[in-house]
Design brief:
By secondary structure, this protein is an alpha/beta fold. It is built from ten helices and ten strands. The strands form two sheets. The chain has an eight-stranded mixed sheet.
Length: 291
């Protein structure tokens, strides 16, 4: 199999088999991220993809799912992406689900009809690294799109019948804009229909511009208590009928159906704000080395 290090895959989807469609990230400029810092973006050569598919056909010929890598395969135009998905179906004809992560901006160059045809081939679930629905925050962290872009592109996915995840990056606006980040993100998310809302707490990893800004006093990261308070504000306002997923950089584990458990989740957050061992939480975050 042809994989370019480092290999990141969504652990909440089936994690085997995987196939790499692109290398690196087209944007590679978000201020909190170094995932593909040293990996230039390029399309995976078709001959590599076919070699990998022959290997998969020999090992998992009855595969029902596959996860497409790397950061944002949807950056490819429809005319480049469709032949790759059709090749996957040729070698793994029993596939029922193709999953991939991508950027909001990657959807702009595809019509609803094109997205619908991609779904018909099997691409039926996408994870979007939205991070915020607040324009000030999106610009501050250099996401490369606006809140209106999020609405427009998520609505295209919904019209095409492609399920999508949306992420809320707790703490990414810093103390200076925390409340607006939480409130405006909830307002944008509520206008979409995500099947899952995922969230983790901002962790300032070495080599990220936000860490360098924090060290210069230009960015004020939230404390563990402030992270939970911001998340509580976001979830108080969130009305999406979705799953909630708090991943490993979150202060608390709150995953599961959201609306039926909303009061329970908010009560748990308030209890942690009032009684949690904040020093232990901060120590766990300090020991994290990467996403």
């Amino acid at each position: 199999m042809h994989f370019t290090e480092p290999v990141y895959r969504n652990p909440y989807w089936p994690t085997f088999p995987l196939i790499q469609i692109t290398q690196g990230c087209t944007h590679n400029s978000c201020k909190f991220c170094t995932m593909y810092k040293d990996v230039p973006f390029r399309m995976q050569p078709m001959e590599w993809i076919e070699e990998d598919l022959k290997e998969l056909r020999a090992t998992v010929p009855h595969a029902k799912t596959i996860q497409l890598l790397s950061a944002n395969p949807m950056a490819l135009t429809y005319d480049r992406l469709m032949p790759r998905l059709e090749l996957i179906r040729k070698y793994l004809p029993e596939l029922e689900h193709m999953y991939t992560a991508t950027r909001v901006s990657d959807l702009k160059n595809k019509s609803v009809d094109e997205l619908r045809r991609l779904r018909e081939v099997g691409l039926n679930e996408i994870s979007l690294g939205v991070e915020s629905g607040d324009d000030w925050t999106l610009q501050r962290i250099n996401k490369g799109y606006s809140a209106q872009d999020i609405l427009e592109q998520c609505h295209k996915l919904e019209e095409a019948g492609i399920a999508h995840w949306m992420t809320f990056l707790n703490g990414v606006a810093g103390r200076e804009h925390s409340h607006e980040h939480a409130v405006n993100s909830a307002l944008i998310f509520n206008q979409c229909k995500p099947m899952l809302v995922g969230t983790g707490g901002l962790t300032l990893f070495p080599g990220t511009p936000l860490l360098e800004e924090a060290q210069r006093g230009e960015f004020t990261p939230l404390t563990e208590q402030e992270l939970m308070e911001e998340l509580k504000t976001f979830l108080e306002l969130l009305t999406c009928d979705c799953e909630l997923n708090t991943h490993h950089t979150s202060s608390l584990y709150l995953s599961g159906p959201f609306l039926p458990r909303k009061k329970q989740i908010l009560d748990a957050l308030q209890d942690a704000i009032d009684h949690a061992d904040l020093d232990a939480m901060a120590a766990r975050r300090a020991n994290k080395r990467g996403l």
